[in-house]
Design a protein that fits this description.
- The chain has twelve helices and four strands; from the N terminus they run ααααααβαααββαααβ.
- By secondary structure, the chain is an all-alpha fold.
């Protein structure tokens, strides 16, 4: 037994080192796991914050997408154009059926009649029908509607170009005789005409007069038309500069930039209707804008 407990200096140092290693290992065993657990907690907390930030980004992205969708305003379905029908989700066949029906000088006066004429699906009709805006006379009684139709027919007898009065020399008193044009509207027509030296360029400019509905404009055109149009210098669409384009009504610098950009991509416009493809182009005013352009 004595031989087992007698050590040299080197052996004692070794035993001391072994004890030191054991004590150090115990310390690591007790303290290091606590350090790792705290780190794990911090990581979990950061992960939760990251998830919350991602959800906020997703919600902002959804709001942006919703805001970028085109807004639909109330409209008369009788005047749906090819472009308007396309934006509403109608097929070419459905749009053509409506145009063919209107070509027979008939009017769509209800949601059910619109579906019967165009044969649009129930799902699409449910989306777009809340925006239909029919003339007030459509909701009148049958007897009132019949009386209105008879009065309307009397005012819409076709006249030749020679029989019509020149819109650029017509007086407010003459315009007031048109059914639906009162004293205020007749004065507005004359006032708008007098803003330009030479008057109207074409009949389409009647749509620029505040308060004139499409139906009233049609009745005005039955008795009046522009015979002496205002002389203007048209701009060549495929060579016009941005400064020339912004001189046209409803075209600002941003739209002019988009027009030139689209013109470059297309290697020149082939028709004025191709302007409908330009970003942010005022589609409803294309007929007015076309008065100042040529190819």
């Amino acid at each position: 037994m004595k031989s087992h407990f007698q050590f040299s200096n080197q052996q004692r140092n070794g035993i001391f080192l072994l004890l030191l290693v054991i004590i150090t290992s115990q310390c690591v065993y007790w303290f290091v796991p606590n350090l790792f657990s705290n780190t794990s907690f911090d990581f979990t907390q950061n992960q939760n914050q990251l998830e919350a930030f991602k959800k906020e980004l997703d919600s902002l992205r959804l709001i942006k997408i919703a805001q970028s969708k085109p807004k639909i305003y109330p409209f008369n379905p009788n005047y749906i154009t090819d472009y308007k029908g396309y934006t509403l989700g109608m097929t070419n066949e459905e749009i053509d059926r409506l145009h063919a029906f209107r070509a027979t000088d008939q009017w769509v006066n209800s949601v059910s009649q619109f579906q019967k004429v165009t044969k649009v699906s129930d799902s699409l009709l449910k989306i777009i029908s809340p925006y239909f805006k029919f003339p007030s006379w459509v909701n009148q009684s049958q007897s009132q509607t019949k009386a209105y139709s008879n009065a309307y027919a009397n005012f819409t007898k076709p006249k030749s170009f020679k029989q019509k009065i020149d819109l650029n020399i017509a007086t407010a008193a003459q315009l007031k005789k048109v059914y639906g044009v009162g004293e205020k509207l007749s004065q507005r027509i004359v006032a708008y005409r007098n803003k330009f030296k030479g008057g109207f360029i074409a009949d389409i400019e009647l749509s620029e007069v505040y308060g004139l509905s499409p139906e009233v404009i049609t009745r005005i055109q039955n008795d009046f038309t522009v015979k002496t149009p205002r002389v203007i210098k048209k701009i060549h669409l495929n060579t016009a500069t941005r400064d020339q384009l912004v001189n046209i009504q409803y075209i600002d610098y941003e739209i002019a930039h988009h027009i030139i950009e689209e013109r470059t991509l297309r290697d020149g416009f082939k028709s004025l209707e191709e302007l409908l493809k330009v970003e942010d182009f005022p589609v409803k005013k294309i007929e007015i804008i076309k008065l100042y352009l040529q190819l």
